[in-house]
């Protein structure tokens, strides 16, 4: 593949990561609950505030990559190592998005506005995920670990994804209880609430509508494999 085609692919894929990170930032600002994959980094940041959400995000992704190596063994392919730079890029994009919405001082106390912010996060995340996939550039470890578990367990991806998300939320709730005496966060920032369910279930439904449109309008711009 030509250098120009590679740059186009990674540019499109990076746009997808930026949108997903913006979705994370908006969900944090909604203060109504975070999407399951971002629950552990956010709750850890609330306990150890000197370490950013983005840093905990890429640390968790490196852990997911290690799990892939253990599960796949010799079947782990070198190209999967592209998840490492993707982890750092995505982690710090999340930090940038959270900083942006903090700087804008977006409202998060009115319940209607919280719901609207949560739904906006769903919409932007759904678009971002699809654009990232269309670009076929970066590989996010949070998605890849689910695919690997599905392959090893010989279980449908959707089933494994639900179980994986539930496990992340449960672990977050347990840590939150130990650290703060609450299941939902530290009493100021909400990590697990109805927004978590909204983001977990509506994102997939939203993608059923947005995916065909993105395939139509962005798909033709992506260079084809030789």
Helix content: over 70%
Order of helices and strands: HHHHHHHH
Nearest-integer average pLDDT: 91
Largest sheet: none
Radius of gyration: 17 Å
Shape: globular
Number of strands: 0
Measured by DSSP, the beta-strand proportion falls in under 5%
Low-confidence spans: none
Q: Number of DSSP helices?
A: 8
State the secondary-structure class.
Answer: mainly alpha
Query: What is the distance, rounded to the nearest whole angstrom, between the alpha carbons of the first and last residues?
Result: 6 Å
What number of structural domains do the residues give? 1
Q: Any overview of this molecule?
A:
With 226 residues, the chain is mostly helical. It has one domain. It is 73% helix and 0% strand. It has helices at 3-30, 39-47, 53-72, 83-104, 111-135, 141-153, 157-180, 194-217. It is globular and about 50 Å long. The N and C termini lie close together (6 Å). The model has no long low-confidence stretch (mean pLDDT 91).
């Amino acid at each position: 593949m030509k250098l120009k085609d590679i740059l186009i692919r990674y540019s499109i894929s990076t746009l997808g990561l930026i949108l997903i990170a913006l979705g994370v930032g908006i969900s944090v600002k909604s203060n109504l609950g975070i999407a399951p994959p971002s629950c552990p980094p956010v709750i850890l940041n609330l306990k150890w505030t000197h370490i950013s959400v983005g840093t905990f995000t890429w640390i968790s992704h490196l852990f997911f990559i290690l799990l892939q190596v253990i599960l796949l063994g010799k079947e782990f392919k070198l190209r999967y190592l592209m998840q490492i730079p993707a982890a750092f890029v995505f982690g710090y994009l999340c930090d940038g998005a959270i900083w942006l919405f903090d700087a804008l001082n977006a409202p998060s106390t009115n319940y209607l506005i919280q719901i609207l912010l949560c739904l906006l996060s769903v919409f932007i995340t759904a678009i971002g995920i699809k654009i990232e996939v269309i670009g076929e550039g970066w590989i996010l470890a949070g998605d890849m670990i689910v695919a690997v578990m599905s392959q090893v367990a010989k279980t449908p991806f959707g089933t494994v994804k639900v179980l994986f998300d539930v496990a992340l939320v449960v672990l977050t709730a347990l840590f939150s209880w130990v650290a703060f005496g609450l299941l939902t966060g530290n009493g100021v920032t909400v990590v697990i609430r109805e927004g978590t369910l909204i983001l977990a279930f509506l994102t997939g439904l939203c993608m059923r509508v947005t995916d065909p449109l993105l395939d139509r309008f962005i798909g033709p711009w992506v260079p084809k494999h030789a």
